């Protein structure tokens, strides 16, 4: 019997781990990057549980976004990371899994 992932409302296999995925995105500073990133979650009915973004560099040329999404399966986290890598202007997307007693 499958259970529902309360965030994504999709069936989760009984032996699938539901985790908090942490994403670190480096992109060019462009006003369209952040809405494109959040759109990936919104299309799935998800709201990131944590979001932090900063403009970096001497000439404010780099945008760094760190976000967390609780309640994902690892497979969905990887799929979301791959989708973010396809956004124009995104240079790098790293994903890690938050262990219950540690921070990303």
Observed structural traits:
four-stranded antiparallel β-sheet, Alpha-Beta Plaits, 104 residues, alpha+beta, two-stranded antiparallel sheet
What does this entry show, briefly?
The chain is α+β, with helices and mostly antiparallel strands and 104 residues long. It has helices at residues 33-42, 74-85; strands at residues 3-4, 11-12, 18-28, 50-56, 62-73, 90-98. It has one domain: ACT domain (Alpha-Beta Plaits).
The major beta sheet can be summarized as: 4 strands, antiparallel
Shape: globular
| C-alpha termini separation | 32 Å
Query: What's the gyration radius in Å?
Result: 14 Å
User: What is the CATH class designation?
Assistant: Alpha Beta
Average pLDDT rating = 85
- Give the strand tally: 6
Q: Count of helical segments?
A: 2
> What multimeric state do the chains show?
single chain
The helix content, as a percent range, equals 10-25%
CATH fold-level label: Alpha-Beta Plaits
Low-confidence stretches: 1-9, 11-15
Residues in β-strands, percent: 35-45%
CATH homologous superfamily - what is it? ACT domain
SSE run: EEEHEEHE
The assigned CATH architecture is 2-Layer Sandwich
Which class best fits the helix and strand makeup? alpha+beta
Strands of the largest sheet, in order across it? 4-5-3-6
Q: How would you describe the overall organization of this protein?
A:
Strands 4-5-3-6 form a 4-stranded antiparallel sheet, covered by helices on one side. Strands 1-2 form a two-stranded antiparallel ribbon. It has helices at 33-42, 74-85; strands at residues 3-4, 11-12, 18-28, 50-56, 62-73, 90-98. It contains 2 helices and 6 strands. It has one domain (3-98): 2-Layer Sandwich (Alpha-Beta Plaits), CATH 3.30.70.260. It has 104 residues and is an alpha+beta fold. The relative contact order is 0.29. The protein is globular, with a radius of gyration of 14 Å. The protein is 21% helix and 41% strand. It starts with a strand and ends in a 6-residue tail after the last strand. Strand 4 and strand 5 (62-73) form a beta hairpin.
């Amino acid at each position: 019997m499958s259970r529902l992932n309360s965030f994504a409302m999709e069936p989760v296999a009984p032996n699938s781990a539901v985790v908090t995925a942490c994403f670190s995105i480096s992109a060019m500073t462009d006003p369209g990057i952040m809405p494109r990133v959040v759109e990936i979650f919104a299309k799935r009915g998800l709201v990131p549980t944590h979001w932090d973004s900063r403009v970096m560099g001497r000439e404010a040329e780099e945008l760094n976004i760190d976000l967390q999404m609780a309640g994902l399966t690892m497979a969905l986290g990887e799929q979301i990371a791959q989708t973010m890598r396809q956004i124009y202007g995104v240079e790098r997307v790293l994903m890690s899994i938050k262990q219950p007693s540690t921070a990303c």
